[in-house]
Amino acid sequence: MTILLAILLGIFFGFALQRVGATNPQNIINMMRLKDLHLMKAIFFGIGVSSILLFLLMAVGVIDAGHLSVKSSYVGVIVGGAILGLGFAVAGYCPGTSLTALADGRKDALFFVGGGLLGALIYTLMYGSIQGTWLFNKIAGGKVMLATGSDKFQALLPMIPGTLLALIIGVIFMLIAWKLPDKA
Amino acid sequence: MNGQLNWFKGGLLLGAAFLVAVAFVKPIGVSTQFVIADGIVWNLFSDTVVQKNPESKSGYSSSNAYLNKSGGKYAKNIANPINYSFIFVLAMVAGAFLSSRLGGPQATAMDRSAPEVWRQRFGENPTLRYVTVFFAGVLVLFGARLAGGCTSGHMMSGMMQTSLSGYLFAVGAFAIGVPAAILVYKRN
Questions:
Q1: CA–CA gap between residue B148 and residue B138 (Å, rounded)
Q2: Which residue of B has its CA nearest to A109?
Q3: How far apart are CA B177 and CA B39, in angstroms?
Q4: Mind listing the pLDDT tens digit for each residue in B57-86?
Q5: Looking at the domain assignment, is residue B129 inside a domain?
Q6: pTM tops 0.90, yes or no
Q7: Residues B100, B120 within the same domain
Q8: Second label for B22, Cα 20 to 30 Å away, from A69, B8, B119, B130?
């Protein structure tokens, strides 16, 4: 059953990435050099809509809050994000879109995936010597979310009701998506 | 481009994919599976990298500190490649193929070596593109593993859950990525 879900949900996600143009590195590079914000608008809109629906459906009990998985916040998230950002901007691929770009027949994606396997291996071998360094110093307590949505994770702003805050953030994301210019 | 959805429809479709994944199973993530793929190959050649260990939380342990982390859950997935997260990522490729066959945007023969923006700046020779993109791939996956996730897991899934780490990741990625893209490809 889990494997069947993996196949169906994976196909859906891969289909969406291809259809929105995310498997085309041209679109990513043009987003990063602020030339064509089509993808950025889609990303903001997608996050906004899914976040609102997620918190509403959790509030009425349709989605199990136990499914949430909030990642830890630590210095390495920013440093790692920056290292990723450099490669992302030059190549126009991220891990998910490079794999799905293979389905477009893109040969450069194959080289990216090869490099990615090497990068992941280097990190795997290095981890033992960097664990415990400042890179893993937690920020704001680690696994925190802005809005309360689950008992498992601490809320950064517990004074605002979680569903309301998530709705406000979601609407802001949708407004940004709507207002951003398509071409710059 | 032909077959490509506009931001509104594309955003809805993308958002729907992230929502149904968390509704039925868990938030989408991709970059961990590069580690799992490495581990599967490594495991073919090594008797010690993944071992059954009843004392570990997952039932598996590894001689490598990273694969042994969080109760050996990576070691477990390496020993059992037919698991949700790994199959999900393989299925993504099939989904993209399906979309491409069913009227999605198409890549021209030249696009398949390098996107137009690259060819305009660096010429038609694909070798430079392949070498550069290989090293970019090293950076991206190294960075993603240090950050604990990539564009899917941190940015999309993370910000959907209003997770602080998603915002930190996005700030890091765009603070370097945007100036880098402008420097490499220029604005015009």
A1: 15
A2: B133
A3: 29
A4: 999 999 999 999 999 999 999 999 999 999
A5: yes
A6: yes
A7: no
A8: B8
